[in-house]
């Protein structure tokens, strides 16, 4: 039997909540809130490591590579969640960022806990999906999940960029990855339930990774989500407002140009700012591989010429 000292800190008992079952509702949520407030500070301490990993991923993706997340249980689900938000938020192909979970799609809704113990399964998954031109982020709260470590080892051997996210110090996963991110959040409110503080920390880190990568790939203009996909009434209105914010146009003008641009905020903004038609705007965006900031700079130079 393992001594508590040898267990990951995420598995150890939180002395502050040892009488949790005897607390009233208000006391429970107050202590959960207090513990959650420590998570952002833990992430802050890891910012240098997070930044290095993101820079490496940006370099890969700026050359046409893809980003993959891999994890088991809660970690795998968080990777899938983050990946699934990229197409509607940043207008990218759904193959650009992909989440992989131990046990396959069935594990998204149903716990398949033993799947995480198979290192070779993780390695096989990577062989089937990755190339040397891609990046893989392994996610494991404990930092010791064999499935994820097997995947990272195989990806690194293939020459892909590898990073890891764990919530313990000196994790085995950290030793396997080229860029290790460790966010030690301490014992959970409910002992061992890493869907709590560890899950929150992981979500914060993944938010930083994909959001910063997409910003550097030119999917954001200022702080405006110019690549948003207008798939419903709320988002169509948001696109019009983004066009107005970016150009200073009133709502009616922004709506008119957005319609001419078939709902593409980038095209509408370029049309208004540089008095070009939609075909020219699209051509410049294609020339820049969709990097909106680069498209703006090209048209600015043409205006000055």
TrEMBL record:
Top-level class of the enzyme under EC nomenclature: lyase
Annotated organism of origin: Paenibacillus baimaensis
InterPro entries: Etherase_MurQ, Glucokinase_regulatory_CS, MURQ/GCKR, SIS_dom, SIS_dom_sf
Record GO terms (molecular function): lyase activity
UniProt keyword annotation of Lyase present: yes
All residue ranges annotated as the SIS domain in the record: 57-219
Pathway connected to this protein: Amino-sugar metabolism; N-acetylmuramate degradation
Alphabetized UniProt keyword annotations: Carbohydrate metabolism, Lyase
UniProt protein name: N-acetylmuramic acid 6-phosphate etherase
Catalytic activity annotation: N-acetyl-D-muramate 6-phosphate + H2O = N-acetyl-D-glucosamine 6-phosphate + (R)-lactate
Function in brief: Specifically catalyzes the cleavage of the D-lactyl ether substituent of MurNAc 6-phosphate, producing GlcNAc 6-phosphate and D-lactate.
Residue span of region Disordered: 1-20
HAMAP family the record matches: MurQ
Listed EC numbers: 4.2.1.126
Superkingdom: Bacteria
Family classification: Belongs to the GCKR-like family. MurNAc-6-P etherase subfamily.
Subunit structure: Homodimer.
Note: A lyase-type mechanism (elimination/hydration) is suggested for the cleavage of the lactyl ether bond of MurNAc 6-phosphate, with the formation of an alpha,beta-unsaturated aldehyde intermediate with (E)-stereochemistry, followed by the syn addition of water to give product.
Active site: 85 (proton donor), 116
